Amino acid sequence: MASDEPRYAIEVEELRKHYGDLVAVDGISFQVERGELFGFLGPNGAGKTTTVNILTGVSLPTGGRAAILGHDVVRDSFRAKEAVNVVPEVSNAYPEYTAWNNLMFTAALYGVPRREAVRRAEGLLRAFGLFDKRKVKVKALSLGMRRKLVIAMGLINEPLVLFLDEPTTGLDVQSVLSIRDMVRDLNRKGITIFLTTHNLAEANILCDRVAIINHGRIVAIDNPENLKRAARSVQVVEVSFNPVREEAPAEVGSFPEVKEAAKLGDRLRIVTEDPSLTISALNRYADERGLRINYMNTPGPSLEDVFVELTGIRGGRQAEAP
Amino acid sequence: MLEALVPERLGKELRRALVIAGKDVRIYCLKPPVLLFGLVFPFFLFLSFYVGKKGPVAEGIPGLVSISLFFASSNIAPAGMPYERMVRTFQRYLSAPISLTWMLLGKSLAGFAFGVSVSVFPLLVGIIAYGTAIASPLRLVFSLLAGGLCFSSLGTLVASMPTDAPGNVMTVLNFVRLPLLFLSGIFLPLAEMPAWARGLAAISPLAYANDLLKRSAGYSNYYQVWLSFLVLALFSVVFFAVAAWIFHTSRRRA
């Protein structure tokens, strides 16, 4: 790295955004290293989109500062925007334009010379399996194809920092896997990726680090494994009984040390404060009811458990304050 | 702040504004609201007023050119921007390396280019079919350019309404345009209007554009030529400045 190059791709200091009395972003601070694949997680209304909107110039902050590759997003927004591109949650290609025209327009908007734009557009369309569809209007493309096209539009200026907002939402499994591979490849090529997602499994397998935002504040920021280790109060036991007992979630859920028991396929996933005590209790429970234990494991907390622990969100709803 | 005035930066902004203008003309000039309210509606409106009117058709051609210029120039931004908000493509401009003011200039230029191009058709029909004379070609060109700039700025101002429903914006646009049209002196010459109507006509930019176009075709005008150009320029600046202010304010609140 040259000495005059900024260390961080994204720097955020005490960033705030108010809408009247509503505080959408409440003094958040974090840094994203160059070349990092950074996940930004949070429930709906937590402040994710507001933060991304400020970082990408769509909105202005009420206070604090943010910089992209050392360029302040308010005072030097032109240069900051030249270094980035955005793939928003909604696939917002121009429906009346063909795939090719969308790429060429985006290239021109980012100042890519025409000849270079043609070369890049051809390369991207081939890489994304869209070359045969280049003359098709966007409104005639499938959802997955549109998503890929919008990602291609996000890469046409070869950005140093790419903002990806829910890149796989609403796509079929094949498209999801293909887009995840693309994201990994882009990151391997050195592009810093700021990934906003609801999908915790996706963040877990893709991201170097994740930040969790709730009520406009960052509640945790670390790599996924450290976050899982940090959530000490979340311990999980998984068990499978034979025969399957329908009442098991409610009955096991009533054990004193168990915080939650949920059916997960043919297994029971139990969140507990004391795994050892729970395992003993499960053995007794099985003996008393003549059940066989087919499977038992203590997998440790998932990123989803950490998320629930930190945000109080369970099943898409925020837990009531005690 | 001063960096925005560096020639290299200005060049980039201008090129990108032209890219937006070109895209808008290609996408929106064939959209139904643009065709309906920009071409068909003004043509039939003019026709309905001129049918049965005595006097040579050639005399009405400057009025038809004015109406075409007025409706077509002011139509692209109000048809395009709410639609772009609806399909979220508007967000692309905000995150792209172009300032909001230059982006709006691109939007206005699209209306300007479309309006001036469209207004050439009735002019050619007048010259070829009805013998409309062009007394001052240079004045005619500058009148079309000044009128197109002013009316496209008006369109950009109306398009600054923070809504994603194109129908709402077109309604407001026509609510603004129709009174300005009836006060323009196209259907009733300014000199024949009652004093109060002439006073109101002074706030219609179309009155000045039409006056200039009449003069360019060799007919008598009401306002001084320099005054008409000055007023059109002032209207253009005010419309654009207010539109830019509204967009900047909306962005702060977004």
Layout of strands and helices, then pairs:
The complex is a heterodimer of chains A (322) and B (254).
Chain A (H helix, E strand, L loop, with lengths): L7 E12 L2 E12 L3 E5 L6 H8 L7 E6 L2 E2 L4 H6 L1 E4 L11 H11 L4 H14 L15 H13 L5 E5 L7 H16 L3 E6 L2 H7 L2 E6 L2 E6 L1 H7 L4 E8 L5 H6 L4 E7 L2 E6 L2 H15 L2 E6 L5 H9 L1 E2 L2 E2 L4
Parallel strand pairs in A: 3-8, 3-9, 6-7, 7-8
Antiparallel strand pairs in A: 1-2, 1-4, 4-5, 9-10, 11-13, 11-14, 12-13, 15-16
Helix pairs in contact in A: 3-4, 3-5
Chain B lengths: L6 H22 L3 H19 L6 H17 L2 H11 L3 H6 L4 H31 L6 H23 L6 H17 L12 H7 L3 H12 L8 H29 L1
Helix pairs in contact in B: 1-6, 2-3, 3-6, 3-7, 3-10, 4-7, 4-8, 6-7, 6-11, 7-10, 7-11, 10-11
Describe the structure.
The complex is a heterodimer of chains A (about 325) and B (about 250). Chain A has helices at about 50-55, 75-80, 100-110, 115-125, 145-155, 175-190, 200-205, 225-230, 250-255, 275-290, 305-310, and strands at about 10-20, 20-35, 35-40, 65-70, 70, 85, 160-165, 190-195, 210-215, 215-220, 235-240, 260-265, 265-270, 290-295, 315, 315-320. With about 325 residues, chain A is α/β, with parallel strands linked by helices. Chain A folds into 2 domains: about 10-230, P-loop containing nucleotide triphosphate hydrolases (Rossmann fold, 3-Layer(aba) Sandwich), CATH 3.40.50.300; about 230-315, 2-Layer Sandwich (Alpha-Beta Plaits), CATH 3.30.70. A 6-stranded mixed sheet of chain A has the order 6-7-8-3-9-10, with helices on both faces. A 4-stranded antiparallel sheet of chain A has the order 2-1-4-5. In chain A, helix 3 (about 100-110) packs across helix 4 (about 115-125). The longest helix of chain A has 16 residues, at about 175-190. The model of chain A is unreliable at about 315-320 (pLDDT under 50). Chain B is mostly helical and about 250 residues long. Chain B has one domain (about 15-250). The model of chain B has no long low-confidence stretch (mean pLDDT about 90). The chains are: A alpha/beta (about 325), B mainly alpha (about 250). Chains A and B meet through helix 2, strand 6 and helix 3 of A and helix 1, helix 5 and helix 11 of B.
